[in-house]
Write a structure and sequence with these properties.
2 copies of one chain form a homodimer.
Chain A: H1 3-33, H2 37-63, H3 68-73, H4 80-85, H5 91-113, H6 118-129, H7 133-145, H8 149-176, H9 178-187, H10 194-212
Helix pairs in contact in A: 1-2, 1-5, 1-9, 2-6, 5-6, 5-7, 5-8, 5-9, 5-10, 8-9, 8-10
């Protein structure tokens, strides 16, 4: 593996680690806000699992000779704009934001991981596969939404805003990070226009995700 | 073991679990506020360890036939007054609050654990022994304080306020929870006046803790 491939891998691993760290922070905050003690306990376990996943990614960065702290630090502000533009107005909007936001981020990292060396790819896919917090969001949103048509309509609208902003984050990342474009291009090697294929794929996954909740994407 | 001993044990285990849950929430919030990425990563690991400790205590409650959620829930508000009265004004005050607050709480639970059955006592002592976040607070406060006389004087004052409020929490707990008084009395069986001995012991431990930071208790 050449130096170039190393540094591209470290850049994607840094992003995955940052996203898991953000997931920890968000799940911990969700735990503090959750309406019942059962949810508070469960969300704290999800937060804890995100720390464990993040540290697995950081360990991989160390393994391939990178500086894990520096790799994470470069993505410190990656979701600041997204968060500022998508302040949830209720517990349900908060859950959907996590579900949609993590969903797009995970799908993007999964697609970019196709450009990684086998060892790093295995770590990323394992970590992303392990993100069980989506199940909670689905169960809760499904239970709440099915009983309330107004809520369903509002959440569908909210989901459209979320995915638009999330795709905007991906777009900015690709402009700022040529390494990520290179990695994504490997996964889209059959395509004449990798970014177009990428956004098509992310949108399709989002639509599937919303249907699981009975919401129109 | 009689039903009475079971229910006393469940009451103390519920308190320990709640305190670990609060530790998780506080460490997670500290992680979000910490000045450097290194601290953010480290504090998130401490938060995650608190979840793991809490779940060990909850598992013990289940083992002896209790309802873990109900046991934790009864202490939902245990630190609300303490928190309202001790809003930290800086990162250092926040660190000292955790160090002093956890310190008094841990010492109280350790003393009350002397009244538990051997299995539950082992779990509580193991969990309390494992609370390594104090080391971080000591290292940081020590580094900051030794270079700054004004900060040292302020923190000494803050420490006195914190311990006063913390001992107030213990006092209210003993008034509201006869089970805890019974458990503490076992540990103080040589004493004519168990609560007096308890507060003497808690104060002595606090003084030792403050000296480790070079602060006057």
């Amino acid at each position: 593996m050449g130096t170039l491939e190393h540094s591209d891998a470290i850049e994607l691993l840094g992003l995955v680690a940052q996203l898991e760290h953000v997931a920890f922070a968000r799940l911990a905050a969700d735990s503090a806000l959750a309406p019942t003690i059962e949810q508070r306990l469960e969300l704290s376990r999800f937060a804890s699992a995100a720390v464990e996943r993040r540290d697995r990614v950081l360990a991989r960065i160390t393994e391939i000779g990178g500086d894990p702290v520096a790799a994470v630090r470069q993505y410190d502000d990656v979701l600041d704009d997204f968060d500022a533009r998508t302040q949830p107005g209720s517990w349900w909007e908060r859950l959907l934001k996590a579900y949609v936001g993590y969903g797009v981020a995970d799908d993007f990292c999964r697609l970019a991981a196709e450009g990684l060396d086998a060892g790093s790819r295995a770590v990323v896919l394992e970590v992303l596969d392990d993100a069980s917090h989506a199940e909670l969001a689905v169960a809760e949103l499904d239970a709440a939404g099915s009983a309330d048509g107004v809520l369903t309509a509002r959440l569908a609208l909210w989901g459209r805003r979320l995915v638009g902003e999330a795709l905007g984050v991906v777009q900015r990342l690709l402009v700022q990070r040529p390494a990520l474009v290179r990695l994504v291009s490997v996964g889209s090697s059959g395509s004449a226009n990798p970014p177009t294929k990428l956004f098509g794929e992310l949108t399709a996954q989002h639509t599937r995700r919303m249907s699981r909740l009975g919401l129109t994407a």
